């Protein structure tokens, strides 16, 4: 009788293990990867950088700065006013969710710029633009290698503009060197 109970109990445990564990494991399996995950990261970072740079330029344009820096700020803000809505539209068209909130490091950089005046503002503006544009070039280069052809094409189109802005920012750096 005891042997029979052990056998029946073992059989039931085997059935339970064989049937329930795979179902539990399937329920715990990770969700399939989002096909737009790479695109979302590229667009999120690029949009945050673009928004931050536009705001930085608006701060610079509202204050007294060297004419060369004013020209650089006007060029960048004009490009960003065109680029940001376009990136938002592209994200919507391809089902990529992006939020209008700046990345933490971009918000901190923006907050630290606001209290500066004239010479300190000019130096920090050029330094910040160079750093942001270099970061953005890295972001868009990652986009060029993306699996999504639309993102690779967009990156190929935007990269030359960003590289030209970086060259302009480097020229502006010469003006404010101490």
UniProtKB/TrEMBL annotation:
Return the InterPro entries for the record.
Answer: DUF4142, TAT_signal
Q: Which Pfam families match?
A: DUF4142 (PF13628)
| Start and end residues of each DUF4142 domain | 42-170
Protein name as it appears in the record: DUF4142 domain-containing protein
This chain's source organism reads Rhodoplanes elegans
């Amino acid at each position: 009788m005891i042997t029979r109970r052990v056998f029946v109990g073992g059989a039931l445990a085997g059935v339970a293990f064989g049937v329930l564990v795979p179902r539990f494991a399937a329920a715990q399996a990770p969700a399939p990867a989002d096909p737009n995950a790479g695109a979302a990261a590229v667009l999120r970072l690029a949009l945050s950088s673009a928004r931050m740079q536009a705001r930085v330029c608006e701060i610079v344009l509202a204050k007294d700065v060297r004419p060369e820096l004013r020209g650089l700020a006007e060029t960048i803000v004009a490009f960003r006013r065109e680029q940001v809505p376009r990136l938002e539209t592209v994200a919507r068209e391809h089902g990529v969710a992006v939020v209008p909130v700046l990345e933490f490091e971009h918000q901190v950089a923006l907050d630290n710029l606001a209290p500066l005046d004239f010479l300190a503002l000019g130096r920090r503006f050029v330094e910040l633009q160079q750093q942001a544009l270099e970061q953005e070039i890295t972001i868009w280069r990652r986009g060029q290698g993306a699996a999504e052809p639309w993102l690779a094409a967009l990156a190929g189109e935007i990269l030359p503009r960003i590289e030209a802005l970086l060259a302009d920012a480097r020229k502006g750096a010469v003006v404010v060197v101490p």
